[in-house]
Each structure stands twice: as structure tokens, then as C-alpha cells.
Amino acid sequence: MPKQNEPLVTHIYTADPSAHVFEGKLYIYPSHDLDHEMVSNDNGDQYDMEDYHVLSIESLDGPCVDHGEALHVKDVKWAKQQMWAPDAAYKNNTYYLFFPARDHDGIFRIGVATSSSPSGPFKPEPDYIPGSFSIDPAVFIDKDDRAYMYFGGLWGGQLEKWQTGSFVPDAEGPAPDAPALGPRVAELSDDMLTFKEAPKEISIVDEDGNPILAGDEERRYFEGPWMHTYNGKYYLSYSTGSTHYLVYAVGDSPTGPFVFKGKILTPVLGWTTHHSIVEFQGKWYLFYHDSSLSGGADNKRSVKFTELKYNEDGTIQTLDYDKLKG
């Protein structure tokens, strides 16, 4: 296995890792950055990914395997471009790959593809999930076998444009002193291909129960949601975007509300930060990315991992990126 805090693979650029244990192995579902020069902007046009590769690790002392192309945008009829951060889940003896992409109208939607193998290749459904929008799907299957999708991203992820329930191209976000926009959650149908109900906004509050405000950029939600459980509690973690932190909030229900608790990881090299948290072979790990392999290019990132530790009260010990070896 590659060393902690070093790129999992170096032959391609990878980002936005979603890590899961399937069939006793650790599978990582990243986005695949293209190796070319792009001008960065707040709309995210520099992230022009076209396909997905699946990575796997069988043991802590073994190699990281690239299983090759698992899905390409050309095979997704409804999608035009920008195959951004994906996630995967297993149910119904089937592996599901969930992914965002812009449709032919330039609107981000979320699609799903299926496979009999965790490494793919994946066959896409003919259309995106009805009622889906924005980016960064993360799917969590609870102990009662109910499955939930968390999603949403500001700016290029278009979340601000859906505040009315319909797409408003010129919509702006809330004022700095108003409650921040939360990620969305929707329970998935039993076949994992549709929503059981319309997506709902998740409430993230401070210790006193007050909503995190839009101007509180060190705590407010920006993108990259992830859900995991620890000691019976639900941990919603996410990126703050403009301030480049990975942070988390804790709740008693998979749909919230969630109480903000603190930082997981300080800013990495590169603009974006996006992660997943998984338990593997008795330890907890944070998967993340940075731009170290490319010398700092926003659109050429590399997936890394590091051990994650909890305090006795269930809080997560903050990791200082500058102190991580690699």
C-alpha cells in the first residue's frame, strides 16, 4: 500500500475520493483529472473530467490497483461534460456508481450506473435520477438498510440556483447574515435508481442550536458531503470551499439536524478539498486529495490517505496538513 500522505497512484491524476470496503477490500472511487493546462475560475470550468477509474487496496502492505476506465461520459446519453466527484454503494447484489455531470442544457444532474463488480465497468441508466440536481453525491446505507443520498455544492455546483425548487440561472446565495444553504438529502428507492421523496435541506447548527450563517465561511457548508457513523452517532462531514477546511457536524438521525463540532483537516495545497472517511482493518482513515504531485495545479490533483483518530468524547482529532508527512 502506498505510504500515508503520499499519492495512491502517480500515473494519473485523481481527486474527490469516495472509499468503501467491498468484498473485504478497500475500493476508492475518485474523479479523474485530465493532464492538461486549464485556467481556473469560480465556476469550476477547469475541472473538465471525462471518465472514472476505480482503485482498490487488498491489504495495508499491498499495492494500489487501478482497474482502468469504469465509465466514460460518451456512454452517458444525458450527460454533456464534467464527470465530477462520484460515490458508490452496494445493495440488491449490485454495485451502484453515482455521479454528477452537466446535462445538455448545462445543468448539473446526478446519474447512476450499475455493475456486478465493485471495480466495474458500470452501465449507466438511460437518464439521470428524476429530481436530482447539483453535485457531489454521497450515498449512505444505514443499519436498517435504508439508503440516503447527500449532495450539493455552491458556485459551480449550482446549489444556489435551486433555492426555489426550480433552476433559476441568475440566482444568488443568501446574505452573509442569513442561514447558510445546507446540503440536500433524499432517501433512495429500494432499487437505488430514484428518490423516494423530494430532496430536503439539511440543517447544520451551532452548539446553541442557531443555524450556521452564510458569512461564516469557516463553518458553513460548501460542497463534498460525506456520512459515516461512529458509536451510534451520525457524522456529516464536508468542505467549507472558500476557506478550504474539512469540517464535521454530528447528529442523532441520518437526516439531521447536525451540530457543528470542528475541523478535520486544515487547508491542503490546491483550491479544492474533498474527502471520505472509512474504517478498514480495525482503523479509521481519511481519504483526501491535494495538488502536490502536479506542483499546485488546481485541476491536477492526487488522492492520499491518513489515519483518523477520535477522542473519548467522540470528537475527531484535527489533522494539520502542514505536519502530514509525504
UniProtKB/TrEMBL annotation:
Keyword Repeat (UniProt): no
Active-site residue list: D35 (proton acceptor), E201 (proton donor)
GO BP annotations listed: xylan catabolic process
Pfam families in the cross-refs: Glyco_hydro_43 (PF04616)
InterPro entries: Glyco_hydro_43 (IPR006710), Glyco_hydro_beta-prop_sf (IPR023296), Glycosyl_Hydrlase_43_Enz (IPR052176)
Origin: domain of life: Bacteria
Site (Important for catalytic activity, responsible for pKa modulation of the active site Glu and correct orientation of both the proton donor and substrate): D136
SUPFAM superfamilies, per database record: Arabinanase/levansucrase/invertase
Family, as annotated: Belongs to the glycosyl hydrolase 43 family.
Protein name: Alpha-N-arabinofuranosidase
